Amino acid sequence: MIHFLQQANAWFLATGSVLVCCTLIQIIYYAIFSRLLFYKKKVSVSKKEPVSIVICAKNESDNLQQFLPGILTQDYPDFEVVVVNDCSEDDTETVLENFQKEYPHLRTTFIKQDEKFTHGKKLALNVGIKAAKNELLLLTDADCFAETNKWLESMVNNFNSQTDIVIGYGGYIKSPGFLNKLIRFDTVFIAMQYLSLALSHMPYMGVGRNLSYRKSFYFKHKGFASHSHLKSGDDDLFVNETATSKNIKIEFGKESYTRSKPEPSYDDWIFQKKRHMTTGIFYKPLHIFVLALEPITRVLFYISFIACLFYQPFFYSALGIYGFRLLIQYNVFLFLTMRLKEMDLLLFLPIFDFIILFVNFNIVISNYFNKRARYQWTK
């Protein structure tokens, strides 16, 4: 009996040590995330260079009708909008023709359907980028809208002679329901990671809903050639492959956000996340390690925390450690959600912090056992 108690004490002591170590690592991550709290934009451009906004549209007539006017009426002196009609079977062509009558700076190109050849979004983007007349490119999606008419200006004002890439925030439209909040929380957390790590000289991704780079830079690095066989990666893999601590800037101003329509069902959202997460294994090794360490230590944090609650000597210490981490989280997320206009998510922080872990874990397992699955671009 004494031997059993000694073993139990040793096990709980080890568990408590794991809890402390994982908490310290989590705090380090939130110290990195907190860099966004102190970020101040430095406008680099003295003159407004012409810009080409590139949008790919596959059966997006309704979204174009709703959102394209906001893109076409940006407050900027010299820009064009290039829309790639990618094998659309709806009335996308008619919608674009009607807009062109009113907006002469709207240009269109198209890809014809070929039954013998299937392609993803990368081909459409490449067609649009080649068609663009200007050096500065700004990318977004057909189901996205700019929150303000200063979106274009806010993004491209970051460019100077050393800047090749600008990454911004692309959020989702707010609507009632638990799933909508979960999707938006996941998006905010991902944005917190890629924006703060870019500030920490470790840029690893951007989002195609709000991304800008130079046309010459795109062709210098041969576009998406190195990962053209993958259905995803037109945004994150391109940035991961080409960004350095010196050639990238973040845009975090309230006038620079875009919003998209979230997936309507849980299954659709999971499918989307599965497709996006297939690209993570192709990141640089250091990025994989840094991105994997956070959720791994978070899982171990929760497991060791729950285990310590069953050991009386550690009970209050475990609660104190959990409360300390939660306080740090709330301080960072309070600022972040205020800045990103996502304040309604703050109340759900403890729940979503836990749920997202297991959603992502299940996706990783599913992707591992379905390596041949093809997550195609359907929009």
Explain what you see.
The chain is α/β, with parallel strands linked by helices. 51% of the residues lie in helices and 12% in strands. It is built from twelve helices and ten strands. The chain has helices spanning 2-33, 61-72, 92-102, 121-131, 151-156, 178-199, 215-220, 236-242, 266-277, 285-309, 312-339, 349-368, and strands at residues 51-57, 79-86, 106-111, 136-141, 144-146, 165-167, 170-172, 211-214, 248-250, 258-260. The strands form two sheets. Strands 3-2-1-4-8-6-9 form a seven-stranded mixed beta sheet, sandwiched between helices. Helix 2 (61-72) packs parallel to helix 3. Mean pLDDT is 89; it is low at 373-379.
Secondary structure layout:
Blueprint: H1 2-33, E1 51-57, H2 61-72, E2 79-86, H3 92-102, E3 106-111, H4 121-131, E4 136-141, E5 144-146, H5 151-156, E6 165-167, E7 170-172, H6 178-199, E8 211-214, H7 215-220, H8 236-242, E9 248-250, E10 258-260, H9 266-277, H10 285-309, H11 312-339, H12 349-368
Parallel strand pairs: 1-2, 1-4, 2-3, 6-9, 7-10
Antiparallel strand pairs: 4-8, 5-10, 6-8
Helix pairs in contact: 1-10, 1-11, 2-3, 9-12, 10-11
